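Protocol step 6 of 9: fold each sequence in the batch and record its structure tokens directly after the sequence line. For illustration, a two-sequence batch is reproduced in full.

Sequence one:
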Amino acid sequence: MNGMMMKVRLTLGNGKEIGIGVSDGHYCNPRKSPIDMGIGEEYDKIEIGFPTMKDGNTFRLKGIGDDGTGMIYPYVPIQILISIIRTNGGLVLISGKENRMMGIPKKISDLLMI
């Protein structure tokens, strides 16, 4: 791992939160850090982690495979992320140490900027 990663928490309209991560140490495709992405190269799958409700309790995302703990969801297609955001009231807030949108497909970047 070269140290560059994108790790953010998304707060959704219904109060639920999910983490998303992309880097050479996350379960994403391509499995590269954002700084290593070529011009026009985009992630088509991302890692979703630690979905929580307003009260801090975790919840399982239905319809996608996890790592057996319900905490990490590897190689989630971007279209599924869009669906999760839409069915949970849209996107309210993005927070995290690294908030760069490098390598995230334009449709996701646009959605995350609302």
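Sequence two, same batch, same settings:
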Amino acid sequence: MYEYDDPSEEQIEDQMVDDQIEAQRDRENEREATFLYERGRRAYEAYNAGGVAAFANKNFRGEPCPGWDDLPLNVRLKWQAAVVAISKHDEGEG
């Protein structure tokens, strides 16, 4: 049979603090992911709406551009990366 020591109150409190910190980080990461998703979507939609009105929301073949959620994940991530790069440049980091 295995023997183990019960955790001390201090260990329990430390674990509770660690759990709260991890939960906070998860919430912050989720907010950042949502922010980047929305900013990427807005940038993509603005790009497609720009240019000559007759070609708005059309690709180079004149076909309708897919909606944001219909884009492959890789393409959405590239738009999000562009948003990050522009933000860093605007903040003087890039």
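Proceed to step 7 once all outputs are recorded. Observation for sequence two: The first helix runs from residue 9 to 49.
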